[in-house]
Amino acid sequence: MQFRLFLVSMLILLAPQPLPLYAHGSVTAEDDLCIIRIGFYRAHFKIFQPGSSGQTEFCEDIPNTGESIFVMEYLHQELGNVPVEFRIIHDVTGLGRFARLEDVRQIDDIDAATVFYQAPAVESDVFTVLHEFEENGDYLGIVTARHPDRDEYYQAVFPFKVGFTGFGILPLFLILLIATQLAYWFTSGGYSRRKKNAKSKTFDHSIQAPVAGKIMQVLLLLPLAALLLGASAPADERWTSDGGSYQVSYNTELSPLVINDIHQWTVHVETTTGNPVTDARLLVSGGMPTHDHGLPTSPRVTENLGNGDYLVEGMRFHMMGDWEITIEIHQGERSETVVIPLTL
């Protein structure tokens, strides 16, 4: 009975709460910017819903139907001299976050799936389109730009949702609760008693759970408690640079990593023989290769902490999925790169 009361209490605590809407942009060139890559072109990307969200900026997912303004501010100035095409389609691939350009190219009738289309147009500095969404759902945005000199075209595909704010990590909590209950049922003899009662057609409610079962119950709940309290643990995995000279690891104040929280990393760099690298210059970038876009922020090293440790500030992930963090290590004339894969 006590355990059932605990489960009910936990479910109440984990009940869906209204999620805050985070702005995916900034008035500075350093912080909190969504970046879209179209071949070698790059642009700041943001979406506004002035009718429902005022000046709040979104990166991909938007919370409501209605009037939506898509804005690309060119980082590569050549984009202002070439035709740019913009299309929004229903996600008929059924792949959601995992839809890629190859999947879009396999759509038989893309016009039938199209909900908005703007023909190629040359717009200097800023590219802006306006569309009014009439229904919630999964969509794919497709941006096409021409090469400035050759008859070649580059495309970027970004999946996004309209009218959905996500469940966060609530499903994980529920799965852990169910698994904990089942494990406790087995370890406390519930399964054996059920088999026995099924044979005798009677139920013995006087049987008490053994002490071992109670201890197992507490042990099984410890990982869940760590998640609820946001316990942090340093990453102990190391990644080797492409040239084989360096090994990189990191610690972060967020563990597990969550979306939409700006945080910092401590990156440790050492040689493959274990000697700390104290005089390197690090450049940090990243993105989602399957979505063809970068980080929503521009993280940078703000302090050399000594002993091979470097403080990186401005880290943020704005959506769930597979990410890659790229760290360029420059030491004298040597330059090597480390790629750290992450799944949120």
What name does the CATH topology of the largest domain carry?
Immunoglobulin-like
Overall 3D shape: flat
**What value does the average pLDDT take?**
79
Q: What is the CATH architecture annotation of the largest domain?
A: Sandwich
DSSP helix count?
Answer: 7
Strand residues, percent: 35-45%
Give the end-to-end Cα distance, rounded to a whole number of Å. Answer: 36 Å
Oligomer: single chain
Topology:
Elements: H1 2-13, E1 35-38, E2 41-48, H2 50-53, E3 57-58, E4 66-74, E5 84-90, H3 101-105, H4 110-113, E6 114-121, E7 126-133, E8 137-146, E9 153-162, H5 170-187, H6 190-200, H7 211-229, E10 239-240, E11 246-252, E12 263-271, E13 281-288, E14 293-294, E15 300-306, E16 309-315, E17 322-331, E18 334-343
Antiparallel strand pairs: 1-2, 2-3, 2-4, 4-7, 5-6, 5-8, 8-9, 10-11, 11-12, 12-16, 13-14, 13-17, 15-16, 17-18
